[in-house]
Design a protein that fits this description.
This protein is mainly beta. The chain is 9% helix and 40% strand. Strands 2, 4, 5, 7, 8 and 10 form a six-stranded mixed beta sheet that branches. Strand 7 and strand 8 form a beta hairpin.
Length: 795
């Protein structure tokens, strides 16, 4: 049996060498279009979570740039992954030539650094490969489920508002299911809503849109053209960039000509009661693009030369620069034709009206709207029937939170201990409970649900619960943040009421829409926005001195192994941090140097574990040497080696640590090892509910001393900061398992990149953090910070 100690200090001598990625997100080499590289997947490379070896390359890309990436290998089944700005992610297994090579054609949605991961289809595959980066032919579709093939005969760049023609034909690219596809590129702006229409008489049209900010929309049939096979979808761009629009068919091998049109919201086809267009109808060219402001009225004329909707109506458009929460009364009047009025813009606003809801103004059109976001809105003046012409007057008046006669005012009030106070302009405060009624005449969502609007001011880090209850309808809440992000909830815990529990991510004004799940539902409701203590699992976590810890650090080994700097201080500083934070229980134990014996650790487990109960968190922390010993290959030791931590007079193995943790009866148990080969403890210890492991290195690699931080190890240094509050990512006074893991990973990427490590066989790589949450959930609380109070669930 061979027993080899790898000392942390050994890593200090490994200061130079080629840069190899520390994680799949860290680049190995910077590439440019036209580059071809030869590489190899081998033992010692980084591995994906699923076990595949991987190499990572970087390329600096520009928005709209078309690139092709090809990976070939005779030794293994190649697999490519590309990630980049705005959550961009594409991958490919087989490029379609011989089934084992991989290839991707990409249209980059945004400028920035993209990472190309070269890996294998199966875990553990090794061998040589070649990787080529080139420029793709223009018009090729983005690789979301699209296989490689011949260059597309159709596609290109779409101009908003201008129809383009194309044809699906043999020789076009194909989707994996066999459909021909043409790729079109549409420049988009964040917050702008677009409608894309694909009309074809020869085949069943199908649209796909992929773009910046994770945009992903598909459509088979135009929802407004019953009985046709044309396709139409509407989307709101989440980020600036280029959207990839794939024109394809519902069935494989379908071919024929088509027409495609992309228009910003407000200039697209008629909505509501207006007649639907025939397939293939085209628009004329001119539109009014004048600015209009609240309080202004303009006169105009519909007639020849104006833009036409697909269904034949003349249309003029105006731009209104609006503010979030602004309430407007829009009126379109004419004695020459039946007016039809529409408004669309940021925040997904899209409302239209044929006849004034007052019913007293004949055929005139009127809209009451509350603007959901700052930005430019498009107001469209048109007619109910195709071809109608004549003069009109368009007036935009401030509504000032009141309704015109015939339209009910939002019926809501604040219920304060039995007294009722009308909600003025929908403004409420956190802690208010509101009573109200959804009723006919309220504002409606695009899908027909009545809606009452409320606003409140919040601060980053506040945890709130918005709760809507009703016995009259199926409740639904929509919360919009100051920056425009939308959160919504249909059913709370009881199935029909709605509850949205969240931590506010920014300071500012939040908007809440109180509505129903189904269109047209009405009735009374109660709504509240109140401080929250989190999910039921989080509420049950008590604050105060609930951390029962054993903290061990060995710097002076007394000749058993080489001494290490700062590792004893790691344990002492961690205890000081937890004590200052008011979370360390008095029964906790610190063992350093001569005290850190095998018997001492075992006694500490017996003492501390017996006092820690089901409402407490247990922490075992160690900073010092780690060891590996040859043993028997098994499911727990697939490499045939046993890992251990090295104490002053002996070792505790991963198997024994597993037995020690098995005796705990706590809410959450955390094992933190800052030592060589520490990742090997994960399989033995993180094997039961409520146990989480943090390890400074993978099971076959050494760990380094963090000299620049005057710490024995990087994990020790970052852990202290994380538990002191730096790990509280959303500022709600709780450090959750997910937040702590994210904080530690980010610190390792920022500070430990390039820190070298070594295996027993002398293979060199880089130090990588290992985190295993096991059955611990993302939102499970590791600890409550002292500022949240010591009472159960206090915030």
């Amino acid at each position: 049996m061979r027993n080899v100690l790898f000392f942390t200090a050994l890593s200090l001598s490994l200061a130079v060498g080629p840069l190899i990625p520390a994680t799949p997100a860290v680049a190995q080499e910077r590439l440019r279009p036209g580059a071809m590289v030869n590489g190899a997947l081998s033992r010692g490379d980084d591995q994906l979570d699923s076990g595949e070896f991987s190499d990572v390359y970087e390329v600096e890309g520009r928005a709209g740039e078309a690139l092709s990436v090809t990976m070939r290998s005779d030794d293994f089944d190649a697999y490519l992954m590309v990630t980049g700005p705005g959550d961009f992610q594409e991958d490919n297994d087989d490029s379609g030539d011989d089934g084992t090579n991989a290839g991707l054609d990409l249209r980059l949605p945004a400028s920035g650094v993209y990472r190309i991961t070269a890996t294998s289809y199966e875990p553990g595959e090794r061998g040589r490969y070649s990787l080529a980066l080139g420029r793709a032919a223009r018009g090729g579709p983005q690789g979301q489920g699209i296989g490689r093939g011949e260059t597309s005969a159709g596609g290109g760049r779409l101009e908003p508002g201008r129809a383009a023609s194309g044809a699906l034909a043999a020789g076009d690219r194909r989707l994996q299911a066999g459909e021909f596809v043409d790729g079109w590129q549409l420049p988009v702006r964040r917050g702008q809503t677009y409608t894309v229409s694909l009309d074809a008489a020869d085949f069943d049209a199908y649209l796909m849109v992929r773009g910046p900010g994770g945009l992903s929309e598909d459509n088979d049939d135009d929802p407004g053209q019953r009985g046709t096979r044309n396709s139409r979808l509407t989307f709101t761009a989440a980020a600036d960039g280029v959207a990839e629009i794939s024109a394809t068919s519902f069935g494989s091998n379908e071919t024929g000509r088509y027409q495609i049109l992309a228009e910003p919201a407000g200039a697209a086809r008629a909505s509501g009661n207006a007649p639907r267009p025939d397939a293939g109808a085209q628009a004329t060219v001119r539109a009014v693009e004048g600015m209009i402001v609240p309080g202004e009225a303009v006169s105009g004329t519909l007639g020849d030369g104006d833009r036409r909707l697909d269904s034949g109506e003349f249309t003029d458009s105006y731009t209104l620069r609006g503010r979030r929460g602004q309430q407007l009364d829009l009126r379109l009047t004419s004695s020459d034709f039946d007016p039809y009025l529409a408004i669309s813009g940021p925040g997904g606003l899209s409302e239209f009206n044929d006849d004034d809801p007052e019913g007293s103004s004949g055929l005139n059109s009127r809209l009451f709207v509350t603007l959901p976001a700052d930005g430019d809105y498009r107001i469209t003046a048109t007619s109910y029937a195709a071809g109608e012409a004549g003069s009109y007057r368009l007036a935009i008046n401030p509504a000032d939170g009141t309704s015109a006669a015939g339209r009910p005012r939002q019926d809501s009030y604040v219920d304060d201990r039995g007294s009722r106070e009308d909600v003025r302009g929908g403004v409420i405060r956190i802690g208010d409970t509101v009573g109200g009624t959804l009723q006919s005449g309220d504002e409606t969502l695009e899908s027909g649900e009545f809606v009452d609007n409320f606003t409140f001011r919040g601060q980053r880090g506040q945890r709130i619960a918005a709760e809507l209850t009703s016995s009259a309808f199926d409740a639904y809440i929509i919360l919009t943040t100051p920056s425009g992000e939308q959160l919504d909830n249909d059913d709370g815990e009881d199935g029909t009421n709605s509850r949205l529990d969240t931590v506010l991510a920014e300071d500012g004004e939040y908007q809440v829409m109180v509505t129903s799940f189904a269109a047209g539902e009405t009735g009374s409701y109660r709504f509240s926005v109140a401080p929250s203590q989190g999910s039921p699992r989080q509420v049950a976590v008590q604050g105060g001195a609930r951390v029962f810890a054993i903290m061990v650090g060995v710097s002076e080994y007394g000749g058993v192994a080489s001494d290490l700097p700062f590792t004893d201080e790691d344990a002492e500083k961690l205890a000081e941090t937890l004590q200052r934070g008011g979370v360390l229980n008095a029964s906790s134990v610190v063992l350093t140097n001569a005290e850190a014996t095998v018997a001492g650790v075992r006694r500490a487990f017996q003492s501390v574990a017996s006092q820690a109960g089901p409402d407490d968190m247990f922490l075992f922390f160690f900073s010092g040497h780690g060891s590996q010993t040859d043993g028997v290959t098994s499911a727990l030791e697939p490499d045939g080696r046993t890992e251990s931590i090295v104490l002053r007079d002996g070792e505790i193995t991963d198997q024994e640590m597993g037995r020690l943790f098995a005796g705990l009866d706590t809410r959450l148990s955390l094992l933190v090892l800052d030592s060589c080969f520490s990742g090997g403890f994960a399989r033995n210890v993180v094997d039961r509910p409520g146990v989480m492991g943090l390890f400074s290195s993978e099971e076959d690699l050494t760990s380094a001393v963090a000299d620049k931080f005057e710490a024995g190890g990087y994990l020790s240094h970052f852990l202290r900061a994380g538990l002191a509050g730096a790990g509280d990512g959303d500022g709600d006074g709780m450090v959750t398992a997910g937040e702590l893991a994210t904080y530690l990973r980010r610190q390792f990427v920022a500070e430990v990149e390039g820190v070298e490590a070594e295996t027993l066989e002398g293979q060199r790589n880089y130090q990588n953090l290992v985190i295993d949450r096991g059955g611990v959930q993302i939102d499970d609380v590791v600890l409550r910070l002292a500022s949240t109070g010591s009472s159960a669930g206090g915030l």
